[in-house]
């Protein structure tokens, strides 16, 4: 029922983009691996299918009833039979084999076939030019010159092509050069601002390219008019639309992804970012009739619209571009917002985890889809222990590092990456649950499952993470933004089946969160206790008899005025009270500080005198303790010399001796009780070595046992 082909290439302005092609009964789907753009061709709209032998294997040319043409290269010769049978069976049309002219002649017949200019030699096509790539067309006496749009991804670009058009001798009234020019201009991608704009937005703040611009909306393109530069953006260059809330909850970002990008000299702007305040409202009147709004835009736009500026702009752009708007989904950071504050290179911005990728705003803007991500990595922060780095490595080998992320965001971000089944680089090689996003041509919403290894990693890392880091495994699904209130058709571009979780699931999430919080507290308590006891052993005890240190003038003043400061600032914390006191102390004049500086001087003299007295007392105690220790050593030596020598005694035999028998040398006198354990062990060892065994006459019943012992 389905044919799938990998490493299929699509040409765009001289660059070949690889992707995956899927042919089913419903139609043909091609997904660009670089941009993620999806071409979805319905089977009922197909008009022709041709098969060519080209430089890169074989090519499939597909034409639609609307006149649009799509070409896909990279097929093998053996694929022809499969494709021919499938197209004939499901689309009821024949896959025709066509040959290209390889004579190399530079004269022939120019034929305009829809959006293509075909140069034929002997009724065989030598080459075809997509007229949508033409940026300028000029004429002279018998010539027509075509200039083309450039693609930065192409190694070699076609800049210009000239055609010599001979005069028409059969009909001298018709100018063939002008006819050629008119046919090119009819299909060329040349922006001409003819007529009035549909609507105009005045002085919108733009972050990239930076400045304030008047945005004029035309039927086929968007015109940015600034004080220095003007930009015209065809709607065909728009890939995606994003509406992202600022972390302060007072502003909104409207992001337009462009391919090809805006060009200004050597600078390329792949994203157009507009910033709005939520409090700004406007009333807009379109220069269209009610019938045109209903017919062209299917009722998505009204002639008069009012509301927040960001909502009006997003509604108009969505209707003109005919693309869905992507908004943040289920992810909520530690602050309760969808944005994570971080830095990329030298610029600070916000990272938004989406249902199908990540987007970083704003300098430089970066959009990374899950299907182009190889793995992610959580690394220690270089500058501070309170932050960490989040690294994303793409399949092409490029690594994007988002640094200076607060540790409170770790738990939420780790849960998100695990639920999306992204491969975590420093987590091991267990990839059984990982999702291959390449296999998913149109996107999916598979939810992540509970992972025991994740819980263990979080427990080990919990020492440096606050309790607020904990987050639930199951979060709400992506809630797509819809300015007109429907909310049904604004899912992620590849995410067409987004669902909303119920309140019952929210209650289960709270219960799971409480259970995991308790487990984490138990895991944190054990290593923390061990570390505190070990530190306490190393810490030197403070002498309670030591005099109290002298206080500075500021501390004396602070102790006297602390109660007044607390009354003036009842909600301030201890640290904030200290900051307020420091500012007041700096503002005080020398005359006001003189009293406290005198008190500090007196306190310093008091501490100096008390310290001298303390040191003298400590030295006297040390000398008395030394005399007592000398007397104790003399007493110990005297007790060792007066110890009685051991007398011979009968050694116990194995059979007749009692279990509790001890020889005389093991019995210590009362004088030995003051000795240390080490002294007793040394004395005992020396006495055992000096003792000589004395034989005694054992009873007859014990002779055999004594012999066995010998």
UniProtKB/TrEMBL annotation:
Molecular function GO labels: DNA binding
Organism: Branchiostoma floridae
Keyword match Phosphoprotein: no
Biased composition (Basic residues): 514-541
Basic and acidic residues compositional bias, start-end: 581-621
Keywords, alphabetical: Chromosome, DNA damage, DNA repair, DNA replication, DNA-binding, Nucleus, Transcription, Transcription regulation
Gene Ontology cellular component terms for the protein in this record: chromosome; nucleolus
Keyword DNA-binding: yes
HMG box domain span: 547-615
Subcellular location(s) per record: Nucleus, Nucleolus; Nucleus; Chromosome
Family (UniProt): Belongs to the SSRP1 family.
DNA-binding segment(s): 547-615
GO biological process: DNA repair; DNA replication
Name the record gives this protein: FACT complex subunit SSRP1
Protein task: Component of the FACT complex, a general chromatin factor that acts to reorganize nucleosomes. The FACT complex is involved in multiple processes that require DNA as a template such as mRNA elongation, DNA replication and DNA repair. During transcription elongation the FACT complex acts as a histone chaperone that both destabilizes and restores nucleosomal structure.
SMART domains: HMG, Rtt106
């Amino acid at each position: 029922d389905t044919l799938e082909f990998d490493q299929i290439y699509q040409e765009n302005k001289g660059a070949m983009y690889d992707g995956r092609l899927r042919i089913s009964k419903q139609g043909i789907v091609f997904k660009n691996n670089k941009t993620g753009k999806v071409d979805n061709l319905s089977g009922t709209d197909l008009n022709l299918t041709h098969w060519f032998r080209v430089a890169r294997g074989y090519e499939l040319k597909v034409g639609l009833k609307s006149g649009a043409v799509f070409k896909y290269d990279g097929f093998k010769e053996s694929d022809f039979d499969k494709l021919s049978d499938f197209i004939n069976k499901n689309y009821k049309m024949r896959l025709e084999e066509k040959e290209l002219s390889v004579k190399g002649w530079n004269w022939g017949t120019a034929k305009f076939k829809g959006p293509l200019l075909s140069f034929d030699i002997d009724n065989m096509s030598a080459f075809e030019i997509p007229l949508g790539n033409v940026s300028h067309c000029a004429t002279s006496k018998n010539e027509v010159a075509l200039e083309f749009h450039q693609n930065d991804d192409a190694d070699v670009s076609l800049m210009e092509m000239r055609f010599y058009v001979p005069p028409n001798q059969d009909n001298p009234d018709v100018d063939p050069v002008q006819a050629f020019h008119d046919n090119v201009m009819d299909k060329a991608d040349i922006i001409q601002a003819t007529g009035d704009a549909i609507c105009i937005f005045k002085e919108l703040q733009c972050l990239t390219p930076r400045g304030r611009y008047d945005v004029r909306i035309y039927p086929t393109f968007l015109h940015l008019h600034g004080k220095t530069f003007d930009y015209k953006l065809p709607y065909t260059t728009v890939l995606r639309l994003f509406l992202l809330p600022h972390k302060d909850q007072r502003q909104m970002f409207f992001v337009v992804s462009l391919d090809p990008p805006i060009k200004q000299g050597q600078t390329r702007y792949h994203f157009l970012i507009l910033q709005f305040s939520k409090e700004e409202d406007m009333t807009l009147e379109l220069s269209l009739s009610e019938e045109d709004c209903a017919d062209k835009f299917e009722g998505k736009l009204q002639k008069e619209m009012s509301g927040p500026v960001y909502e009006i702009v997003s509604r108009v752009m969505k209707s003109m571009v005919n693309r869905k708007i992507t908004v943040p989904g289920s992810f909520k950071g530690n602050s309760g917002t969808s944005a994570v504050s971080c830095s990329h290179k030298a610029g600070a911005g916000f990272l938004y985890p989406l249902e199908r990728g990540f987007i970083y705003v704003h300098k430089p803007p970066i959009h990374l889809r899950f299907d182009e991500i190889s793995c992610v990595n959580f690394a220690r922060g270089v500058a501070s222990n309170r932050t960490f780095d989040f690294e994303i490595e793409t399949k092409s080998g490029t690594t994007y590092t988002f640094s200076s992320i607060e540790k409170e965001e770790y738990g939420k971000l780790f849960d998100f990456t695990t639920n999306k089944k992204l491969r975590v680089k420093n987590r091991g090689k267990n990839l059984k649950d990982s999702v291959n996003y390449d296999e998913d041509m149109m996107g999916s919403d598979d939810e992540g499952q509970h992972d025991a290894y994740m819980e263990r990693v979080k427990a080990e890392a919990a020492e440096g993470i606050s309790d607020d880091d904990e987050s639930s495994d199951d979060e709400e699904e992506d809630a797509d933004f819809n300015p007109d209130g429907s909310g049904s058709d604004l899912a992620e571009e590849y995410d067409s089946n987004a669902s909303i979780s119920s309140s019952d699931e929210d209650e289960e999430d709270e219960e799971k969160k409480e259970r995991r919080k308790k487990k984490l507290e138990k895991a944190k308590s054990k290593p923390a206790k061990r570390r505190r006891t070990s530190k306490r052993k190393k810490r030197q005890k403070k002498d309670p008899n030591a005099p109290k240190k002298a206080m500075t003038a500021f501390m004396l003043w602070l102790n006297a005025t602390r109660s007044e400061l607390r009354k003036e600032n009842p909600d301030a914390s201890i640290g904030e009270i200290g900051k307020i006191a420091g500012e007041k102390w700096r503002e005080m004049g020398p005359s006001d500080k003189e009293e406290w500086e005198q008190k500090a001087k007196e306190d310093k003299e008091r501490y100096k005198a008390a310290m001298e007295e303390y040191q003298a007392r400590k030295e006297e105690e040390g000398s008395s303790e030394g005399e007592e220790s000398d007397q104790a050593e003399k007493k110990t030596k005297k007790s060792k010399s007066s110890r009685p020598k051991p007398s011979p005694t009968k050694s116990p035999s194995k059979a007749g001796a009692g279990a509790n028998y001890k020889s005389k040398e093991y019995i210590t006198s009362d004088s030995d009780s003051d000795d240390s354990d080490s002294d007793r062990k040394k004395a005992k060892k020396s006495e055992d070595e000096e003792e000589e065994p004395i034989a005694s006459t054992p009873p007859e019943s014990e002779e055999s046992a004594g012999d066995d012992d010998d």
